[in-house]
Amino acid sequence: MLRNLLALRQIGQRTISTASRRHFKNKVPEKQKLFQEDDEIPLYLKGGVADALLYRATMILTVGTAYAIYELAVASFPKKQE
Amino acid sequence: MTHQSHAYHMVKPSPWPLTGALSALLMTSGLAMWFHFHSMTLLMLGLLTNTLTMYQWWRDVTRESTYQGHHTPPVQKGLRYGMILFITSEVFFFAGFFWAFYHSSLAPTPQLGGHWPPTGITPLNPLEVPLLNTSVLLASGVSITWAHHSLMENNRNQMIQALLITILLGLYFTLLQASEYFESPFTISDGIYGSTFFVATGFHGLHVIIGSIFLTICFIRQLMFHFTSKHHFGFEAAAWYWHFVDVVWLFLYVSIYWWGS
């Protein structure tokens, strides 16, 4: 009985030990090469075009909005006429 | 390429602290606009920019560690200290709400009827959904430990399964708690009982959601082969946070749900 149990365990382990047969390939070495390239590009842009788009969107939304609020605050207080 | 003669990580300049700070400004002023002028635009902008900042900041941390190798043992040690200190600060955050609860419930005022639960409040039965929630979170604590051990033993598929189970249990807790909130006979405006109940359990629920997101990020990273059997601090940090969330729930259950009924 115990031998059957051990055999079952072995089968279970055999299917587990192979990597997932789906689409996940280990791309870490490629990424390591990409991000270690000696090209002076800052880390937050080093991934490619998507990085630049995301960066630009974030900066426009944050700095742009903060600046807009500043202008609104200035406009809310009219300059005194002498 | 690298010229440093020490094992520490001198982080390169980054725009995310600026955008993070600005997003905090937008969120807080957005809250004020929502409360006083019934407009959610600024708040939504703040939440969006906050999310963008967090995504890019932590994406960069993954790039610095997994792809560039900056997380040497001393650096990892610093990150461990950091996570422990952060969780400690969260413990104090919750301590305040437990203080408030015990302050009001240990000496109930005449206005409440001189007893706890106060007059007019029908508390939730601790042996129904709250007990199920307790078992769900405890089970998730077991499954995340299973995931960790699988990871350390290089058992990729079991790690993925166990982490998935943990995330699903977290989701189940959140759904159960949401339905409890919906069905609850009392609301947050039902005196001090309602306030202490919903603020304490509400912040806990928020932390369950945050923890679930952290675990999901770890799940994705595990699928992408980021973790090794020896080096997986991101996962350990998520696991610590998850256990913390579980422990807070146990305190909530015993104090508010059980003793408080």
UniProtKB/TrEMBL annotation, chain B:
<dbReference type="InterPro" id="IPR035973">
    <property type="entry name" value="Cyt_c_oxidase_su3-like_sf"/>
</dbReference>
<feature type="transmembrane region" description="Helical">
    <location>
        <begin position="159"/>
        <end position="177"/>
    </location>
</feature>
<feature type="transmembrane region" description="Helical">
    <location>
        <begin position="197"/>
        <end position="220"/>
    </location>
</feature>
<keyword id="KW-1278">Translocase</keyword>
<keyword id="KW-0999">Mitochondrion inner membrane</keyword>
<feature type="transmembrane region" description="Helical">
    <location>
        <begin position="41"/>
        <end position="58"/>
    </location>
</feature>
<keyword id="KW-0496">Mitochondrion</keyword>
<dbReference type="InterPro" id="IPR033945">
    <property type="entry name" value="Cyt_c_oxase_su3_dom"/>
</dbReference>
<keyword id="KW-1133">Transmembrane helix</keyword>
<protein>
    <recommendedName>
        <fullName>Cytochrome c oxidase subunit 3</fullName>
    </recommendedName>
</protein>
<dbReference type="InterPro" id="IPR024791">
    <property type="entry name" value="Cyt_c/ubiquinol_Oxase_su3"/>
</dbReference>
<feature type="domain" description="Heme-copper oxidase subunit III family profile">
    <location>
        <begin position="4"/>
        <end position="261"/>
    </location>
</feature>
<dbReference type="GO" id="GO:0045277">
    <property type="term" value="C:respiratory chain complex IV"/>
</dbReference>
<dbReference type="GO" id="GO:0005743">
    <property type="term" value="C:mitochondrial inner membrane"/>
</dbReference>
<dbReference type="Pfam" id="PF00510">
    <property type="entry name" value="COX3"/>
</dbReference>
<dbReference type="GO" id="GO:0004129">
    <property type="term" value="F:cytochrome-c oxidase activity"/>
</dbReference>
<feature type="transmembrane region" description="Helical">
    <location>
        <begin position="79"/>
        <end position="102"/>
    </location>
</feature>
<dbReference type="InterPro" id="IPR013833">
    <property type="entry name" value="Cyt_c_oxidase_su3_a-hlx"/>
</dbReference>
<keyword id="KW-0812">Transmembrane</keyword>
<comment type="similarity">
    <text>Belongs to the cytochrome c oxidase subunit 3 family.</text>
</comment>
<comment type="function">
    <text>Component of the cytochrome c oxidase, the last enzyme in the mitochondrial electron transport chain which drives oxidative phosphorylation. The respiratory chain contains 3 multisubunit complexes succinate dehydrogenase (complex II, CII), ubiquinol-cytochrome c oxidoreductase (cytochrome b-c1 complex, complex III, CIII) and cytochrome c oxidase (complex IV, CIV), that cooperate to transfer electrons derived from NADH and succinate to molecular oxygen, creating an electrochemical gradient over the inner membrane that drives transmembrane transport and the ATP synthase.</text>
</comment>
<keyword id="KW-0472">Membrane</keyword>
<dbReference type="InterPro" id="IPR000298">
    <property type="entry name" value="Cyt_c_oxidase-like_su3"/>
</dbReference>
<feature type="transmembrane region" description="Helical">
    <location>
        <begin position="240"/>
        <end position="260"/>
    </location>
</feature>
<dbReference type="GO" id="GO:0019646">
    <property type="term" value="P:aerobic electron transport chain"/>
</dbReference>
<feature type="transmembrane region" description="Helical">
    <location>
        <begin position="16"/>
        <end position="35"/>
    </location>
</feature>
